[in-house]
Amino acid sequence: MMPRLAAAVLPLALGGCGGNWGWHVVNPADPRGQANLRFMVDGLWATVSLSLAAMAVSLALGLVVALAGFARARPLRWFNRCWVELFRAVPILVMILWVFYGLPVVLDIRIGIFAAAVLAIAVCDSAFEAEILRAGIQSIERGQHEAAQALGLTSWQRYRHVILPQAIRRVLPPIGNQLVYVVKMSSLASVIGYQELTRRANELVVTVFRPLEIYTILVLEYLVLILLISWGVRRLERRMGADQRQGMPG
Predict the structure, then answer these.
(1) End-to-end alpha-carbon separation of the chain, Å?
(2) Per the domain annotation, does 126 fall within a domain?
(3) Residue 28 lies in a domain
(4) Which residues contact 53 (CB under 8 A, 6 or more apart)?
(5) What membrane topology is given (predicted)?
(6) DSSP class of 129
(7) Mean pLDDT of the chain
(8) Cys-Cys with 127: which of 88, 98, 142, 195 at CB 3.0–4.6 Å?
(9) Is 65 inside a domain boundary?
(10) CATH code at 179?
(11) How many helices (H) and strands (E) does the chain have?
(12) What is the number of domains present in the chain?
């Protein structure tokens, strides 16, 4: 129903634009417009896969760095502070370029475009994830730690079964915000040739010479994607909140 409605309304809206605008290049009622739109939308999976992979790696790295900050060993705490301060200061675009062009030279390895983009975005974002997770862990009442310790749980078991599940519930909103941030930053992978939404839009612009029309569609693509992610995060928050209330004694 919605695609049909869009196909009926969009040509009318775009057709009413005057001046030198060429909205026919993205008109779904025009064969050329259909081909251009299909070419752009085909980059959606690349954007989503890059964002999800980078977010997964970022959360794993962030958790390790956050836990290092609670260690008794001073070198681990120093590792935490150095990691956070270093990678919060490096722009993601610079990190993508360095990982793709510099890391193979330093380590004498070959690295693909996708792997380089995932690694660069994940490393930079992990500094923020580490701080989010640290704040979540610190927000857990001391009594929870003491109760878990009284049950004879090891340090790892306390974090795995008691502390982290509660902390993740509390930091889910900022983690959701970081996912939105990662999706937007994935557009920077276009500079090394990764065929995500922005790269495909850039290639189309140099083909049809209509930057206003193409980039307008690109904005709409990101808008829809971000709105869907935000909706999913809010729904997950409500579900986890409901599960937590159901687990509370009456």
Answers:
(1) 45
(2) yes
(3) no
(4) 114, 118, 122
(5) Multi-pass membrane protein
(6) H
(7) 87
(8) 88
(9) yes
(10) 1.10.3720.10
(11) 12, 0
(12) 1
Per-residue tokens: 207: 């083909």
Q: What would the two tokens of residue 38 be?
A: 């299909």
- Calpha distance 189→247 (Å, rounded): 43
How many beta carbons lie within 10 A of that of residue 57, not counting itself? 18
3-state DSSP assignment of residue 110: coil
Residue 83 belongs to domain spanning:
46-194
Residue 199 contacts residue 214 (beta carbons within 8 Å): no
Structure tokens at 73: 């060993």
Q: Are 54 and 122 in contact (CB under 8 A)?
A: yes
Amino acid at 243: D
The helix/strand/coil state of 108 is coil
- Euclidean distance between CA atoms 240 and 35, whole angstroms: 42
* Contacts by residues 28-35 (CB-CB < 8 Å, ≥ 24 positions apart): none
Q: What is the pLDDT of residues 49-86, one digit of tens each?
A: 999 999 999 999 999 999 999 888 999 999 999 999 99
The token pair that represents 41 in the structure block: 């939308």
Each residue's pLDDT tens digit, 76-85: 999 999 999 9
Token pair of 61, please?
């790295």
